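User: I'm writing a short report section on ligand binding and want a predicted complex to refer to. Could you take this sequence and flavin-adenine dinucleotide and write out the structure as tokens? A short remark afterwards would be nice.
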Amino acid sequence: PQLEEARRALEAPLFADVGGDMEVSFEFFPPKTEKMDAQLWDAIRTLEPLGPRFVSVTYGAGGSTRERTHATVARIQRETSLAAAAHLTCVEATREEIDQVAEDYWAAGVRHIVALRGDPPTLGAKFASHPGGYANAADLVAGLAKRHPFEISVAAYPECHPESVDTVGDIDNLKRKLDAGATRAITQFFFSPEAFFRFRDAVAAAGITAEIVPGILPVSNVAQTRKFAGLCGAAIPDWMDRLFEGLDDHPAARQLVAATIAAEMCRRLYAGGVKSFHFYTLNRAELAFAICHMLGVRAKPQAVVAAA
Ligand code: FAD
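Assistant: Sure. The structure tokens for the complex follow:
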């Protein structure tokens, strides 16, 4: 029977089982310079025809990108066919200030907020909420939901948030955010589909029915990824180091390896029933575009994009 199974596996063409019946979303960060702005818009225009259900723009630590995030989100909303989502954090701001940011988004036609607590501006410092501010992400979700019927997404951690005591506490916190008015969770990046599946099971066992969308980070620079992975509760497996060994001077090969790893991970997640993927693009379209292509996510006819 084992031989039979192996033969069947070999006969199935690679990626034949992914049918394009999935939804994707893309995350960008607000550009700092004109050159970065051009790169971002190149990425947006490349990915737009794939018809993502939304694209989101991050909010810098301590609200450092407040204006730039707003400008980017508002421009996407105004000038493209895409639904833009704005990340928003509680750090270093009063409730009134954050509420005003949310009001400005609503006025600009933005209907989707990714609500986060955020991290302290000093690396490694302990988080302390602003005396007049929102205490955490659940508190922020409640505040936003009171103001307008925003669609609200929140963060989830398949390998546990670094400050949480255990998975149970982490999932309790996720439940509080969803109960406060969020509709979906987007996960921190991870490189173990098994960790995601274990987390999904634990979330379901806790009675949570909201969708948990895996956050996919296509890694082409493992050293850089390692720098911030530790801070956000994501493990970099040894095999990933081995795959990138000796490729420092081969950027094109690194891109191919990156696409292969991420596509294979998405394929496994898909085989386990996952139908939505959120890509951390780092403002570069090619990797996400190639992975989506392999997964069967193709450009939608122009008319469909325009009507969406
Ligand atoms: P929370 O959900 O508030 O949780 C933070 C920690 O506190 C957890 O350990 C939780 O278990 C614990 N906790 C919360 N409430 C309680 C309670 N009542 N009792 C006990 N424990 C509690 N950061 C940015 O600065 N800008 C961004 O744009 C950004 N985008 C992100 C997007 C995604 C998809 C993800 C996954 C993360 C993003 N982050 C961003 C990072 C995020 O801000 C950090 O991970 C931050 O440390 C936690 O944010 P949170 O919203 O998960 O916090």
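A remark for your report: The chain has a mean pLDDT of 91. The pocket of flavin-adenine dinucleotide is lined by residues 58-59, 61, 87, 89, 114, 116-119, 136-138, 155, 161, 163-164, 169-170, 173, 177, 186, 188, 215, 232 (CB under 6 Å).
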